[in-house]
Specification:
seven-stranded mixed beta sheet; Alpha-Beta Plaits; single chain; alpha/beta; Rossmann fold
Length: 278
């Protein structure tokens, strides 16, 4: 039997779970997992249902829309692998971790290509038989460089773009081409320790936590809806190099966790907030 994921959000009202699951039952589908949440302040309902059954259930959505309140959002997704393109620069830890997980089937995605503004990571991608494209930014303004990157991306028609330590600021025009499709990872020191050598800055400041944040990319730099975060405690005995290594570890683990949530369709976006069913 084929498995499907039903994603619904709408104004809250009595009996929504009963109505939605009732339609699936009457149509002969079996519910595999079900999660729901009510934002009491906004009076808004969220539900993620994975179900299995016979033919493609497109007609089910029409029946549900007739039962749900005005303004309801319904989306049907499959449980297959997502097509992704990875953007990177020179740091290898996030890309390498993602390629290794991909090679051993630990990520629900097919990596179509790696794109970078430097050739540094070409050999890493080639070790995993993943196409690598170096799109240099040298002598190009941001608009021209992004146009060149987009041209490569469009060859692969990805569902998501993963920024695996891609150290270029994306323009609003670029982000608008891929709404809610770009996932980024960065250290959690922001807005402090901006710029080069953040872990050296953290060492000199004597921080006690090293963390990472994975989020959707929006026009506001590093302020998109947060998908996953994690921290590791440290103390004065750690060197700046130790901090960087720990930071790299927590970044790649946090990115992997975030991508699992994204690819399994476990996220609803509400403004700049992410509602997540883990």
């Amino acid at each position: 039997m084929d498995n499907y994921i039903l994603l619904i959000d709408c104004p809250d009202q009595t009996g929504l779970v009963y109505q939605i699951t009732g339609v699936l039952y009457r149509c002969g589908y079996n519910i595999v997992t079900n999660n729901e949440f009510v934002d009491r302040e906004a009076r808004h309902f969220y539900m993620r249902t994975e179900f299995a059954g016979g033919p493609h259930p497109a007609a089910v959505l029409d029946e549900m829309r007739a039962l749900l309140p005005a303004g309801a959002n319904l989306r049907l997704a499959n449980t297959g692998k997502r097509r992704i393109v990875v953007l990177a620069t020179k740091e290898y830890h996030c890309l390498g971790d993602l390629l290794l997980r991909h090679a051993y089937g630990e990520v629900q995605a097919d990596i179509q290509a790696v794109i970078s503004n430097h050739a540094t990571l070409a050999s890493l991608a080639h070790k995993f038989d993943i196409p690598f494209h170096c799109v240099s930014h040298a002598n190009l303004d941001r608009h021209a460089h992004e146009a060149a990157v987009s041209q490569v991306i469009e060859q692969y028609n990805p569902e998501y773009i993963v920024l695996a330590k891609y150290m270029r600021i994306l323009s609003p025009a670029f982000v608008a081409r891929y709404p809610n499709q770009i996932v980024n990872i960065h250290h959690s020191f922001l807005p402090a320790f901006i710029g080069a050598s953040p872990y050296r800055q953290a060492f000199e400041r004597g921080v006690k936590l090293i963390g990472a944040t994975a989020h959707y990319v929006t026009d506001d730099l590093d302020k998109g809806p947060i998908i996953a975060q994690d921290v590791i405690r440290i103390d004065h005995t750690y060197s700046a190099n130790d901090l960087a290594q720990i930071g790299h570890d927590v970044e790649k683990i946090t990115l992997a966790k975030a991508l699992k949530l994204v690819f399994e369709e476990r996220i609803f976006l509400s403004g700049n907030r992410a509602i997540i069913f883990e």
